[in-house]
Amino acid sequence: MTSHWISGRVSRRSLLGGSLAGAALAASGGTMSRAATGADRRPPPLDTQALRAAVRDLTHPPATSAQLRVSRGADHWYTAVGAADLTDGRSPRPADRFRAGSVTKVLVATVVLQLWTARRLRLDAPIGRHLPGLLPPDSARITVAHLLNHTSGLPDHQGLPDLSTPEAVLRHRFDRWTPQQWVDTVAHSPLKFRPGTAQEYRGINYVLLALLVEELTGRPYGEAIASRVLRPLGLDHTLIPGDDPRLHGPHVHGYLRMTDGSLRDVTVFDQSGSWGEGELVSSLDDLGRLQKALFTGELLTPQATEQLFTMPPDTVRMLDGSPARYSMGLQKATVNGVTFWGKTGETYGYRTRVFATRDRSLSFVLSCTPTPLSTDEDMTQRVVTVLTS
Predict the structure, then answer these.
(1) CA distances from 65 to 52, 82, 92, 317 (A)
(2) What distance in Å separates the CA atoms of residue 155 and residue 191, rounded to the nearest whole number?
(3) Cα–Cα distance measured from residue 314 to residue 336, given in angstroms and rounded to the nearest whole number
(4) For 38-57, how does the pLDDT look when each residue is reduced to its tens digit (9 = 90+)?
(5) N or C terminus: fewer CB in 10 A for the chain?
């Protein structure tokens, strides 16, 4: 059976392109009866020639570079194509920094689950217990768990700028937003559905969770992530940038294609429009290390790790009627009988895919720099087809 990976828009438009991040990497078809273990069937040997061809095509989607790291058991393979910087033509390297978009949510969820393990919060507690007065009265039923697995039912945003053209994106690239301003954009409409009854990928859920982390730890959420996750794992190329719009040290540049056909460098970009949910800076090496730590229990207790792989009840569906695909921090995709768990990340000029079977017998980290404002999942589809065929 042929499976496909679907990229689409979500209702919360982060100013940094998070509109593409959440709904990507959903798959149809294949058996799912053993999805909980990730052992649907034994992954085939790596076809490195086919994998190299899958990322070498920088026309579908149009992109300036791509990096791919794949692991199968003890076998590890890496390739890079294109240019990290069009001005000098340097090839990307696995330690180069890039914007990882919504992979941020994995780190926020990890810290929230650590606080749950320490009994600093309850997953079934209303978010208003910790953050009173932020949301309207009909949001009183929204719990921490609803935010983690995108079943909150929060309304669509109001009052956001129109970012439907690349020129508009450039005009707004240095806009400053506060978390309170983001929350205010959803605070004046009724809920879209009763919390816990449906699923819709929303960045605002993780803005609230980042605020929760700050409330419980008494420090900026980026500092909490650094002390609890990044420094213990030695992820020296990963950070929450805060007010700094630049990438420092060796890094991969992102570009946008304008309507006149020209390319503009969008590497320097104010990240406040994705505060708490999509502003992560990382590298291919660091994301692979993070993936291993999450799946092997280095960061969480067994009980908390299990939450990462726990889906909502079968009665909970996406708004389009398809099965739910988000757990408390991860998302699930089954292709050709192989179930992957991981996270997508999307921001202007950058796309990141970090996925593995639950037993990590097969894993991959894909980073590319697409130039259109929005693109299909052609490269991801090619890579996953090779890995599961």
Answers:
(1) 13, 4, 7, 36
(2) 5
(3) 21
(4) 445 555 579 999 999 999 99
(5) N
